[in-house]
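Morning F.,

Quick status update on the modeling queue. The single chain you submitted on Monday has been processed. Sequence for confirmation:
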Amino acid sequence: MRHLAEIERSATNMAMLLASHEVVASRLQVFYPRQHDHVDAAAASTLGFVGGCLCLKFRDDGLNTQDSLNAFISLTIEHARRLDCILVKGVSFGFSIPRLSAASSMAEGQRPFLRLYAGLLNDADARKLGAAFSRAIQHFVLGRGAEHVA
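Structure tokens below.
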């Protein structure tokens, strides 16, 4: 149970950090059940564990495509690497390493979204990962993002 609590703490911390970061929050919506404004916040408050995954989607819905999300993931991983923060692409069965993936919605007509598994991030690494998201957004959305979309 200790690892589950650490994973949830990491996800909660990451959700709060991203949602409160001006650059990130202006371009991405952050969804996590422990957020007070989440649609399932009341139900989540009755549960012992709500998981380690956050869902993210661009506020500009035109960027919520597989190609755009995959390009953004690549940029975010590169910026994380430059900040000496581990972030990998895709899903895995591991517990400690943060992962970012583009998930296709199961609901018909819904756009793909980003899924971030927070792993076991300490506070310093969470701040680095938040900075990596910010830099990737500045590069992708505010700068030269279109050239990265194939």
